[in-house]
Amino acid sequence: MKKQVLTTEQKRLETDLWIIALVTLGVFLFYAVMGNQLMNFVKNSNISVIPRLLLNAGVQFGIAGLGITIVCILRKEKFTLFGLIKKNTIKAIVGTILCFAPYICYIFISRQFNGYSPFSILITDDVMASGVPLSIIGMALIVVIWGFFEGFNYVVVCEKINRRYPPKNQWLDYGAITCAIVCLLFHPFSTSFWGIVEIITTFIAIYGMLIVKKKTENAWGCIFAFCFIWNAI
């Protein structure tokens, strides 16, 4: 069988994907090894909230944001090229909410809902209690790292995969499938009944929001999901 000859663009995209994968995996493995020590530091209320937040944000950005940032700088690609546009913003957000509807229902039905708290992370309360201007700066950092980059990371990775491996079916999207699987692998799940339901609804949510992005060509729906749904309920 004749070996497929990759074009210059395909080689570039493969390099991009390898950079993103290695950076993400490297930071994740660092967290897996040092996680307990890092979290003990982050949760220590006797330490100023700023270094704790910066450490937490640094790890989060390393897993979801650093790889795509390096690639975009290397390739001189602006973030706006990946769907940060005004057109179809409402459609993208509404479509994304519909995709997350099964996941939201799962949260309520399984009695895991403890209140709606956008941008809720481990030390959000400490950040809010730190006073002005630290609370404003801290919340802005949380919005950027846990809201913008966590959602936008999926957008860039998905698009890079689909450019390298163009799907033949409009609904069978290789990039969306990969991102949904990675999301499942990077978050703890159980094999109980509700654990299986969570896996299914999470897959639907991530896969669906990326399909919505592809159809609308607007990435704000994905960012909205991580600002006001994923990290809020």
Describe the model.
The chain has nine helices and no strands. It is an all-alpha fold. The longest helix has 36 residues, at 8-43. The mean pLDDT is 92.
Task: Quickly describe the structure.
By secondary structure, the protein is mainly α. The chain is built from nine helices and no strands.
DSSP, total strands? 0
Helix content: over 70%
Put simply, the count of helices is: 9
Q: How is the biggest beta sheet arranged?
A: none
Average pLDDT taken over every residue: 92
Principal-axes shape call: globular
Order of helices and strands: HHHHHHHHH
The secondary-structure class comes to mainly alpha
Strand content: under 5%
Outline the fold blueprint.
Elements: H1 8-43, H2 49-63, H3 66-75, H4 89-109, H5 124-128, H6 134-164, H7 174-185, H8 193-216, H9 220-230
Helix pairs in contact: 1-2, 1-3, 1-6, 2-6, 4-8, 4-9, 6-7, 6-9, 7-8, 8-9
Salient structural properties:
0% strand; mainly alpha; 233 residues
